[in-house]
Amino acid sequence: MDLPEEAISDQVLLERTANSFYHYKDFCLQEIWKPRILKWKSLSTYQKQLIPWYEDYLNNIRDCIESNSIFYMNLLEKCVGIWGLGSDPNKWATPNNVDMGKTVSILNQIAREWSADCSEERDRFLALLKDFLDSKFPHDRRDVKVLVPGAGLARLAVDIARMGFSTEANEVSYHMIMVGQFIMDSGLQKDQVGIYPFVHSFSHHLNRREQLRRVNIPDINISEELGGKGLLSMVTGSFPDLYGPNTNIKQSDSYSNSAYIREIRARNRSTKDLVVTNFFIDTASNVLDYLETISHVLKDGGYWINFGPFMYHFEQDPQTEITADFNPYTGEVSNMFVTPLKGLELSHEDILSVASTKFPFKIIHEQSHISSGYGTNKMDISMQGYQCSFWILQKSCDKVNNNI
Ligand SMILES: C[S@@+](CC[C@H](N)C(=O)[O-])C[C@H]1O[C@@H](n2cnc3c(N)ncnc32)[C@H](O)[C@@H]1O
């Protein structure tokens, strides 16, 4: 039986993601290790004697890459069947450089979300969020519906579910979904697995030990913490696509126009008490689509709580996409337009201004310049990090939006 086009492309994306995990070791040896061993070999005998330990150090780098690769092989062993992939990696679609880059960088994301090493950076937001939730929702938390879009590896969603709220994590990237699912559903004990997330980066190290440092994950026993309470669910797909209104947003790569999806969007209207965005809103090509979506999915009186920087992901992206209007009832398409992915990078103040004057939001709290790392090696000696904004907006009952 032929699969519909959408299903085929999802299948290809899954295969490319799985294949990028499969080829992690070859890629790193080729791109990271080999140039350095060649550099070492190119040194004069005299210079080699100045840093005689260097070759051992490179061997240690290779061992760390090997260990990370074992993590990915274990993941594949567990996930290939679950995701309905064929068992022969040679038959999977070929990953591109972006896929491979994600497979390397997601090791930092694992440390950010699931290691004690990064608990301090996670707490920057978690402490603020917890204060608000404790004051507003002291009881009956199971009845409070929370949505976490751009959930990454789902740590924040797990933390909110641990506080007793019914939590839905939404994520679009198969890299994130596969790794997150592996970490959460494999019955891992606290600190059971070691990874080497900092091994791929050769700058900003105080010493070599810090680059080669093992980070243990997960920092909690996840299944014990969630304890079969049924408080956490994961939804795969683009946030505006699944939770946005059927009007006011143009059809695009991240917002489709099938009758099936239009029906899901209509059903999701006014269903959530809280939308919690963490390092997410700057992932938008059109941040107004995110505002429309948050406004659509929140119940009247519901809250949007946001934390993160304004490092717009598409700011430097030269690519375009086709956007178009469509009839929300028939799906008929008009006004197709070649649209740059970059070009709508609204600031903190712009967003709060439009949210509170053109959308039905009231500003409850607003803060800026909260410094935070992001998957940062705590021994890093650079000044890297972000100045984050934090706000709480409430969807106001007297400014109700009638989108379908
Ligand atoms: C910078 S990461 C933040 C992850 C997590 N919230 C955290 O704080 O660690 C942004 C996440 O948003 C996801 N994302 C980007 N666009 C999305 C969309 N349209 N719908 C859902 N998720 C999206 C990315 O795949 C990525 O996992």
UniProtKB/TrEMBL annotation:
Q: What is its EC number?
A: 2.1.1.22
Molecular function GO terms recorded: carnosine N-methyltransferase activity
Q: Per the UniProt entry, what are the Gene Ontology biological process annotations, in alphabetical order?
A: methylation
Tell me where the transmembrane regions lie: none
Q: Which domain of life is it from?
A: Eukaryota
SUPFAM superfamilies in the cross-refs: S-adenosyl-L-methionine-dependent methyltransferases
> Its family?
Belongs to the carnosine N-methyltransferase family.
Designated name of the protein: carnosine N-methyltransferase
Source species, please? Kluyveromyces marxianus (strain DMKU3-1042 / BCC 29191 / NBRC 104275)
- List the top taxonomic levels of the source: Eukaryota, Fungi, Dikarya, Ascomycota, Saccharomycotina
